[in-house]
Specification:
By secondary structure, the chain is α/β, with parallel strands linked by helices. It has helices at residues 15-20, 27-38, 58-64, 78-81, 85-100, 110-114, 116-121, 133-145, 193-203, 238-252, 270-281, 293-296, 299-308, 322-327, 334-346, 364-377, 394-399, 425-453, 460-467, 469-487, and strands at 2-6, 42-46, 68-72, 104-108, 126-128, 160-164, 167-170, 208-211, 214-215, 234-235, 256-259, 286-291, 310-318, 350-357, 381-386. The protein contains 20 helices and 15 strands.
Length: 490
């Protein structure tokens, strides 16, 4: 049987990400395609990353003439976890096009897991619920064996949703995989790697690839949804990861890796063993990860990251108010955020913050505390968002009564507050702009101070950063003026 894979993330439909020009291949899709291929199926991939419109799938459907069309979204990428309506509409359109050509259509992803009824109503034959590789293999095997007499009972396949007598049913849940080393290497050969490399070099000046070393997250932040890999945490072995890195380095010559785990190296001793193997194999590359402040206060962990080549750590700082962190069930303290930041910088690793405004109960004082924390710690990069209600979370249940006309962002730059909050949606939009501007102003101020303290270390880059204070100061003040005016609007 021929199986055509695709996914629903169109880079062009996300203007902010299209302008940034730093796309990552759909890793989850490549894992699923590799597993089917390993089990004897002929597979191909229509990669929507650089496609212009859903109809671009038509030549692939006509040339490949697949019996099965699989829209398998990448569960490792936060952009697909956000369930953007632009991408949902694109998936609906591809479902229709594939059905017109007689394909059996299978869906897998965060949005289809959360809204399987809607996807089945749009024509999908099956929706994979949760971690999809094993379910997909069992389902495709079942379709291959089906003689068309209606005797095949798919209700016994765990992790599946489909229509039975025109009513949607969902089978028993499937347990997540424990032995991740048993999966084949992702089918990297199915993507146009030269296009990815060209885009990265044009926009960033280096070439980055994505690798997953773990699945799941054991922590219970009450706004974070885990519809694919759940709360259990399983890791590949360091040797398995290093072998893939060696292969990718030889094949594609990457400069940088994004380890796209929710939490990198949580398992005790994992990072140290990984660093040892990287040094032993002579691998030279930079990488970025996501981690937690309470993990990053461990000196051995941070030193291991530095030895392995870690250049940047993104931590979910979220807020400078302990009250808000506790309300989120974040499980970290403001002091841990500060300690982690200093320890990372001391070991030559950039400390970057995810910040979230607009959580329930957040007041002006909480916002001020967050801005103060950013100014005092001066992270190397800053990612600011507003609270986003994802189905299946405690936070979603608290605000779902407010979700009426708008329940999803259109794209990743939407940043619309979709529930009743302390301030208006316009306020939070302006807050996003103001914090970025004042953050850049304080970075420039720190650069200016460095010129006086260490004039011998002055570079063109540091000089340029310091000079920019002349721009950022009035820009920040004007942004603050508009923010204060919006704060008075109810």
């Amino acid at each position: 049987m021929d199986v055509l894979f695709s996914h629903s993330y169109f880079l062009r439909f996300d203007p902010k990400q299209w302008e940034g020009g730093t796309p990552y291949a759909p890793l989850g899709t490549l894992y699923a395609a590799a597993l089917l291929r390993e089990n004897g199926y002929r597979v191909a991939l229509f990669d929507t990353m650089f496609a212009v419109r859903p109809e671009d799938v038509l030549p692939w459907l006509e040339e490949q003439d697949p019996q099965i069309f699989v829209i398998y979204d990448d569960g490792f990428n936060y952009l697909t976890k956000m369930c953007l309506t632009n991408m949902r509409d694109a998936a609906y359109r591809m479902i229709a096009l594939a059905k017109e050509r007689g394909c059996t259509v299978i869906l897998s992803g965060s949005d289809s897991t959360d809204h399987y009824r809607e996807y089945l109503a749009k024509g999908a034959d099956y929706v994979l619920i949760g971690e999809g590789e094993q379910t997909l293999l069992e389902l495709v095997d079942s379709i291959r064996e089906d003689s068309g007499d209606g005797r095949v009972d798919r209700s016994q396949i765990p992790g599946l949703a489909f229509l039975q007598n025109n009513e949607p049913i969902k089978t028993a849940g499937r347990k997540v995989m424990k032995d991740l080393d048993a999966l084949p290497m992702p089918a990297w050969d199915l993507v146009d790697m030269e296009m990815y490399k060209k885009t990265w070099l044009k926009h960033a000046g280096f070439f980055s690839l994505n690798i997953g070393t773990t699945r799941g997250c054991p922590f219970k932040c009450n706004w974070c949804a885990k519809p694919i890999y759940g709360n259990r945490y399983h890791a590949r072995s360091p040797r398995h990861v290093v072998n893939e890195l060696k292969w990718l380095k030889e094949r594609y010559g990457f400069d940088h890796i994004w380890f796209c785990d929710d939490i990198f190296g949580l398992k005790p001793g994992w990072v140290g063993e990984f660093a040892d193997l990287v040094e032993k194999e002579g691998l030279k590359f930079r990488f970025k990860i996501q981690s937690r402040a309470d993990l990053l206060v461990q000196e051995n962990y941070v030193k291991g990251l530095a030895r392995a080549g870690c250049a940047d750590v993104w931590m979910g700082a979220e807020s400078g108010s302990q009250k808000i962190l506790d309300a989120m069930d974040k499980g970290i303290t403001i002091e841990q955020i500060a300690t982690a930041t200093h320890l990372l910088k001391h070991n030559g690793i950039k400390a970057s913050f995810f910040i979230q405004f607009g959580y329930l109960g957040e007041t002006k004082e909480d916002i001020v505390r967050t801005i103060r924390m950013i100014r005092e710690l001066l992270p190397d990069s800053l990612g600011i968002s507003v609270s986003y209600p994802l189905p299946g979370t405690v936070f979603y249940e608290r605000v779902k009564a407010d979700l009426k006309d708008k329940t999803n962002w259109t794209d990743s730059d939407d940043l619309q507050v979709m529930f009743h909050n302390t301030y208006t949606p316009a306020f939070y939009k302006q807050l996003h702009r103001y914090v970025h501007k004042t953050y850049r102003m304080h970075l420039a101020l720190a650069g200016l101070k460095q010129l006086f303290v260490h004039p011998a270390k002055t570079s063109w880059a540091s000089l340029r950063k310091a000079v920019l204070i002349a721009w950022y100061t009035p820009d920040s003040l004007w942004a603050k003026f508009k923010l204060d005016r919006l704060a008075r609007t109810k």
